[in-house]
Amino acid sequence: MEWTGQRYADGPTVALEAYVAAPPERVWDLVGDIHLMARISGELQTVAWLDGATGPAVGHRFAGHNEHQAIGRWSTTSYVVECERPYRFAWAVEDPETPVATWRFTVRPEGAGCVVEQWVRLGPAPSRLSQAIARMPDKEQQIVFVRMREFERGIAANLAAVKQLAEEPGPPDQAGPPDQADQAEQPDGAPAPSPASA
Asked: Where is this region: Disordered (predicted)?
């Protein structure tokens, strides 16, 4: 990721995509599985649907419990804001109208397979990152850049895991996730970020 100089109020975003040699439906079923995200993320520890929900649909909520070596431990409630199998799955963290962050997977057919993109935007509501910025306002741009770089690395790991699982033979729900240590470890020791965090 190149230096952008963005501030939190700019709503910084990160997006990466990967080609997967598998049908869009198979890929969507993986990215729409919040439990799989907890298994492959280095930051998201546990996740659970709320209010009796058992799967994704617009308006459904899920709780995520996260841990980061620099930020600490925290929990969030996310709201599904887009859910169109096999094309889109998105959720807003904390408040669907004014979220802490918004995450989205997009799947589009291409050739014999598909392209899957994971995208995230910070803000506009304050997050735990805002607390770090408040303590060191002169370093806001650097703080934002470091967090977005973590997101970029984590998204790359997520997409690599989804690609591997989708391209394995057999039903996706019977395939084990790639080794988390291989997927989550970053060159600077930062964990892969959680799709339910900010």
From this structure: 162-198
